[in-house]
Amino acid sequence: MLQAIGLTSTSRRYLAPAVDDLTFEARPGDVTALLGAKGSGKSTALRLMLELEDGRGVTYFRGRPLHSFANPAREVGVLLGDVPGHPARTARGQLRMLCAAAGVPVSRADDMLDLVGIGALRDARLGSLSLGMDRRLGLASALLGDPHTLLLDSPSRGLSPREHSWLFGLLRAHAAHGGTVLYTTADPKEAARTADRVVTIDKGRLVADQDAADFARTRLRPRVAVLTPHAVRLAAALNRESRAARRSVEVVAEGGNRLSVYGSSCAEIGDAAFRHGVLVHQLADEIGDAGPRPASLREQGPHRPTATAFRGSESGAATAPGGPDRSSLTSQNVAEVLRCGGPAHGAVDDSCAPPAAANAPDAPCPGAGGPPLDASGGRASGGRAHGGAACADPLRNGRGGTEAAQHLPRPRRGTPRTRGASSRPLQPLRYELRRFLGVRTTHLIVAAVLVSSAALSALLAYDGRTPLPGLLAAWADALPLPPAAFGAGVLGALSFGEEFRYPALAAARGTVPRRLGLLLAKLTVTGAAALVIGCAVVALDAQVLWLLYGSDPVPVVPNGPVLLLSWAGLLVGCAWSGLLAAGTFRLTAAGVAAVLAVPMAVVPLVQNVFGSPSGRAIAGFPGRLRELTWLQWPSEVDRWLLAALRALVQPVGTALTLSFSVLLCSYLLIGLRDRARW
Fold first, then answer.
1. Which helix (H) or strand (E) holds 652?
2. What global pTM score does this model have?
3. Which of 313-322, 520-529, 575-584, 642-651 has the highest mean predicted lDDT (pLDDT)?
4. Does residue 613 come out as left (phi exceeding 0), alpha (psi in the -120 to 50 range) or beta?
């Protein structure tokens, strides 16, 4: 069960909070709709539940707040807007990356692609997917961890009628297995047709919490939409006749040539228009919304027309509240769409025909007398009786998908505490490796670094004034950083960019998760990548110098350990500085700026402060450290330890150490501050 208690967003000065003391619950086995006009606070409420936005209140997922779960993706599946992903990443690569974050086998990525009907698009780039396919991929991402709860923000926005019916058939199947589904919508007709319970909010406050049947009876009203060039004349005529006949008829001018008439019928309005000689272009039965008006129209006053009509079918057919709808699919059709992929596959062959058992007259009805049946024929715990779509009423509220539940994995029913223990320390590392190597950006940056380093090294060697270490590093005096160090810093900054984030912990754009395991994984991967780039650059530059000028391909550099540790420290320090700066300020540009600021701002500052020579020597430091700790190690360790200390006391080493320390403290402090609390 999902319980939201006292959700209140942080308000700006002189502005009311977007969500104000919102309390409601979504039950397992139900599809719950969070209904409200645009600007009513629906999306903010979801972000507060997921602890992605500052505010007060708490949300319990089966009795526990989200941050207490060791693996949130296996408890809550989230779809907020578009799928955050690099446009060049493939659909399969995106899901495999999320599998590593959620701690599930990578084979589940292909299963989820087949489930949502885009198996044929597994190798398609995210940037080439249509809106409907992108929404299917988002659902596959939300279902990867086999979550108990689904939170979806306007999942049907922009979808075609067939995709709309497919979507809610899938949500109905998840709820039929005992899962909890909460989605937001601004369409009362959609909420009445697809949800079991409707929670209505307005200006961030709770307006009503009703069953779908009660909501349709009290909130939706049938009306007649009239389109005529003489709207004022017809409205006056209808008002006069209704007063004369003492009938309760309400005529609302929607603006322009459109009227909405409540309490009458198409035939009566057509007769009245004929009697008064009024030309009518359109008469259609619709279901109107009698609830709160959008904020943009609320200021027009009680006597201004409301233009928030929810249109019926273009054919003008009447649709009763909660009744059958021509755009809905039966459970048999939903099962076919789930199995055959719907519009992603085009023509449907004979192998996609639904099983004959679904139409058998003696087949048991899953919702006829209790909770839904699971695949083995037993009752699924936590489910409620929905009335099987393939049994008594196949189009009741347009809710297909009971048979489709056979194709959907059942939500996990283990206790939350035991499920959290299944997370492994290597999950963030697997995720980071797939993120780092899953797009061409990494390979392009590495290739650019290698090419620019080789070219610069050849030019510096031709000039003849650069020492050998500078030639191998391709570091000219006029450059603040060598290409390898700058490339490592850019790769680190991209780790916390707009697209790269930990989807198991944060499911919305602009959110930077601050888990220690994720930070360690990113530091490990970016540091290792920086060292690999550094080794490749030195090896390539040595080969270029030998090829062009006949130099020794493996030159012996004096004071090698100090230079080697300085080179490694420079690369790793730049990578980590870019990573922490981008994670702290949530901008890739901030990471790149931090990398450039080290040689251009921090190094001069260190030289001014620590520019005078020291009167102390550190030559005997390894021996004194050995005596203090009572540890014994080979004499070669003393040599490398002294080399590391000499590299550290250099201006660049001191500047990198100082920058890294400040950024790490800032990152950790912001991480502690951003955690949502009661």
1. helix 651-673
2. 0.63
3. 520-529
4. beta
